[in-house]
Design goal:
Layout (H helix, E strand, L loop, with lengths): L1 E5 L5 E5 L10 E5 L11 H9 L3 E5 L10 H15 L4 E6 L1 H11 L19 E5 L14 H7 L7 E4 L10 H12 L4 E4 L11 E4 L4 E4 L3 H17 L4
Parallel strand pairs: 3-4, 3-5, 5-6, 6-7, 7-8
Antiparallel strand pairs: 1-2, 2-4, 9-10
Helix pairs in contact: 3-4
Length: about 240
């Protein structure tokens, strides 16, 4: 089931819920990419994950804001944390959303002090980066995850990465570099490399006539979607 709600900042949030939901049902906060207010492009992935037993929250946010979307992203995170309560919360993102999600894992120090994300030492139970770059500042933290790994000591937590081998906008080497860095620092991390492209990993294809990603049943989208859903369910301990 999917319902809509409005966050305190006025942005719309899609809430995908499974057939059975308890206080311990895991929650996934899933961020779209750089296209402003494109929560709909993640609907196929969100629906598949919800059908497997998780609550999936997909908010709109705008990368064209003066702060690059940071306030929108952190508002949705605060809402997800409040809504989740005692259950686990996994944060994931696609494209520009991937760095934003992974930055929440790498930015905070082992002492629990607050980084520039302003989360007071809180970190998710796991993160998933889908077709992202990690050598540029994350929109949630203002620092690059790769730089955080090299210059700070953070308690390791599970990081799951997915990146299509045919991705043109964001080369797969970006995820391979992060996976190698995570392993080098003793983090539990894995990388799935489906035969897919940048949109295929979210079960879509870019349509130039509407200039956005639309659902697709192509072989690349099937392969990419299966890899992404598998990674998300693993992060949620549902697989």
């Amino acid at each position: 089931m999917i319902t809509e709600s409005v966050l305190p900042n006025g942005k719309t949030l899609d809430v995908h819920t499974p057939d059975v939901c308890t206080p311990l049902t895991p929650t996934l906060l899933l961020w779209h990419g750089v296209g402003p207010d494109e929560r709909d492009v993640l609907r196929p992935v969100a629906q598949a994950v919800a059908a497997a037993g998780a609550v999936v929250l997909v908010p709109d946010w705008r990368s064209d804001e003066p702060d690059g979307g940071r306030a929108h992203l952190l508002c949705s995170l605060a809402h997800a944390r409040e809504r989740t309560g005692i259950g686990p919360l996994v944060v994931a993102g696609w494209s520009a959303g991937a760095g934003a999600a992974v930055g929440l894992a790498t930015r905070l120090t082992a002492s629990g002090s607050s980084g520039s994300s302003g989360q007071g030492g809180w970190r998710p139970s796991a993160v998933v980066g889908i077709a992202g770059r990690y050598d540029v500042p994350a929109r949630t933290t203002g620092t690059a995850p790769l730089d955080d790994l090299a210059t700070r000591t953070a308690d390791p937590l599970p990081v799951h990465l997915v990146h299509g081998t045919d991705d043109v906008p964001v080369d797969i080497r970006c995820s391979r570099e992060l996976a190698a860095a995570l392993h080098g620092h003793g983090w539990p991390a894995d990388l799935k490399e489906p035969a897919s492209d940048h949109a295929g990993v979210i079960m879509g294809a870019y349509d130039p006539t509407v200039q956005r990603v639309v659902p697709s049943g192509s072989a690349a989208a099937v392969a990419g979607g299966e890899a992404t859903v598998s990674a998300l369910l693993t992060a949620l301990s549902l697989r």
